[in-house]
Amino acid sequence: MVTCQRERKQEQNREIAMELLRAKLWQREQEEREKKMETFKGPKMASWGLQIRSYVLHPYKLVKDLRTEHEETNPDSVLDGALDEFIEEYLKMEA
């Protein structure tokens, strides 16, 4: 519901109220579109500033997944592509 009493004439107030109503409806429609897009996109992907794993190669060797707190002490195998344990831990966390 929108009301407006800015002007002295009822017709002008009605026009202003209709503009306000259109703006509110447009805003609501935009919010609904954004919600739909979020459901299609799913969780946000990693981007700048969002770190998933921490690799320490010196003075000790450790790879730590910051989402699941899973740690692996053989970073060479992880760097060679052995990510199965990290994937399993992530899937356990999501379930």
UniProtKB/TrEMBL annotation:
SUPFAM superfamilies: Release factor. GO terms for molecular function: translation release factor activity. It holds the Pfam family RF-1. Gene3D superfamilies: 3.30.160.20, 3.30.70.1660. Residues 1-67 form the Prokaryotic-type class I peptide chain release factors domain. It comes from the Bacteria. Belongs to the prokaryotic/mitochondrial release factor family. PANTHER family: CLASS I PEPTIDE CHAIN RELEASE FACTOR (PTHR43116:SF3), PEPTIDE CHAIN RELEASE FACTOR 2 (PTHR43116). This is Prokaryotic-type class I peptide chain release factors domain-containing protein. It comes from Candidatus Roizmanbacteria bacterium RIFCSPHIGHO2_12_FULL_42_10.
